[in-house]
Amino acid sequence: MRLILAGTILIGATEATLRYLRYDEFPVYDVDAKIGYIPKPEQAGCFMGRYTWSLNEHSMLNEPWFPDSKHGILVIGDSLVWGEVRMAPRDKLGACLQSAMGGRYRIWSVGAGSWANLNEVEYLKRNEDVVRNIHGLVWIANAGDFGNRSHWDSDYTHPRRRPWFLLGYLAGKIAVPWLKHLLPDFARMQSRGDDTNAEVSMETARELRELLQGAPRDLCQHSLFVWYPDAAELKARDPATSHLLGEVKDLVEAAGFRFLDLRGEARWQSNCYRDPIHPSAEGDRVLASILHDRLAAGETPAMAP
Length: 305
Prior knowledge:
The chain is an alpha/beta fold. Helices cover 39% and strands 16% of the residues. It contains eleven helices and nine strands. The longest helix is centred in the first third of the chain and has 19 residues, at 2-20.
């Protein structure tokens, strides 16, 4: 009995401590069949009491939405754009680009971990008022983005609500990466869920082409589609990936987008990564500098900062 009482007190004290330290202040997600999952709009927090974050009414990071067809830029992508909750806001790509572009430009960013291109297309379709009231898009893509749509898979990766038992939730979040190596039923957790091939799926090609054909011409001309290689791809060119890149390049350039292949950018090096694919904080700053130069190069002299 004493052991049970002591264990209950210990668990209760740990739970209270975790909540006091604000380990429960992470983003939560809306889920549906078309967009898969998306950070809920109009939420904010300070994870661990250190990492502040906030999302506006369009689920964008950085600042409140304000139409700006002259200097507004939306950065869209997956975790490469979203970052992670344990990042200082200034180290995320959107904030780094805002710093590089200066106060004359207004930068927003939107994304979610493991989003595919179809999820991003769906976001832009649902937020047509944003598309028609910004100056340009910066679309970050990689080789895993052009197969199937990403669907919600686990509350451990994309929680739909704050857990009532935080200690148990955090313990499960730690355990899942280990369990997925041991039990087949866990293999899909923390992954995109659908295998991708080195080609653009028919649905992706159709949906992306339809979106780009309906987008304002001025927006497309001021937009940049960025091919982001993982660390292995940066070192060795895979023929299948190069074929996929060519398909994507043809699609977006037909709509007037400029295309940037980071593999050919001298500033983008292996030391820009913090893991096999994600950029480090310094990598985000390097990428922001590259984007700044490419965006400025595409403007008329009157518009260039």
